[in-house]
Amino acid sequence: MSETVRKLLSEEEIDKKIAEMAAQISRDYQDEQVHLLCILKGSVFFTCELAKRLTIPVSIDFMSVSSYGMDAKSSGVIKIIKDLDEEIEGKNVLVVEDIIDSGRTLHYLLGYLNSKNPKTLKLCTLLDKPDQRVAKVDVDYTGFCIPDEFVVGYGLDYAQRYRNLPYIGVLDLG
Ligand code: IMP
Ligand code: MG
């Protein structure tokens, strides 16, 4: 079995898109502080690049939820592995996600976060695979809509590998 990665989005395309997203988010929040909630581990690269380009006051927290195990298929089981460090009540929370697929993870997570009374709750994702949606999720900022293929790189993994690729590619399991 041979694994190959076919480039889908170059580092330059991703950089340009994140800069556009950051400009839009900075405009939308104006002088308000935004509390970025990075969903580990896949969103780490995206969160850093986005945060560096925001021109509004920013704070950052991290959560980890299980969705996929070692497989390329959603288990549908969502579990909080790492919870919030700081309270979000009264804050402008912006969830930063790497990719939305079935929507199960975010559907669950947004419900959980909403119950903690943030001032506002928005969602930002680098990638969206809308064809695979089974749970309703309102996305406020989307980088790229991509076809229903399994992608790796720029934080996204297959069995914990490929996160460090500077671009996003489609994984072919051969
Ligand atoms: P959902 O609950 O099906 O929307 O799954 C979302 C999570 O599954 C993402 O945060 C990723 O961790 C993972 N995921 C979904 N699609 C892919 C993919 O194409 N490559 C890598 N991880 C993926
Ligand atoms: Mg994720």
What can you see in these coordinates?
By secondary structure, the protein is an alpha/beta fold. It has three helices and nine strands. Strand 2 (34-40), helix 2 and strand 3 (58-66) form a beta-alpha-beta unit. Helix 1 (11-29) crosses helix 2 (44-53). The mean pLDDT is 93. Inosinic acid binds next to strand 5, helix 3 and strand 8.
Query: Structural class of the secondary structure composition?
Result: alpha/beta
Question: How many strands, what sense, and barrel or not for the largest sheet?
Answer: 6 strands, mixed
Total number of strands: 9
- How much helix is in the residues? 10-25%
Radius of gyration: 16 Å
Integer average pLDDT: 93
**Uncertain runs:** none
Report strand order across the widest sheet: 4-3-2-5-6-7
| Form type | globular
Helix and strand run: EHEHEEEHEEEE
Strand content: 25-35%
Number of helices: 3
Bound molecules: inosinic acid, magnesium ion
- Report how far the terminal alpha carbons are from each other: 6 Å
Question: Mind sketching the topology for me?
Answer:
Elements: E1 4-9, H1 11-29, E2 34-40, H2 44-53, E3 58-66, E4 79-82, E5 92-100, H3 104-114, E6 120-128, E7 141-145, E8 151-152, E9 168-172
Parallel strand pairs: 2-3, 2-5, 5-6, 6-7
Antiparallel strand pairs: 1-9, 3-4, 8-9
Helix pairs in contact: 1-2
Residues 39, 42-43, 97-98 line the site of magnesium ion (MG).
Observed structural traits:
single chain, 174 residues, alpha/beta, six-stranded mixed beta sheet, 3 helices, 9 strands, binds magnesium ion
Question: Gist?
Answer:
The protein is an alpha/beta fold and 174 residues long. The protein is 23% helix and 32% strand. Magnesium ion (MG) is lined by residues 39, 42-43, 97-98.
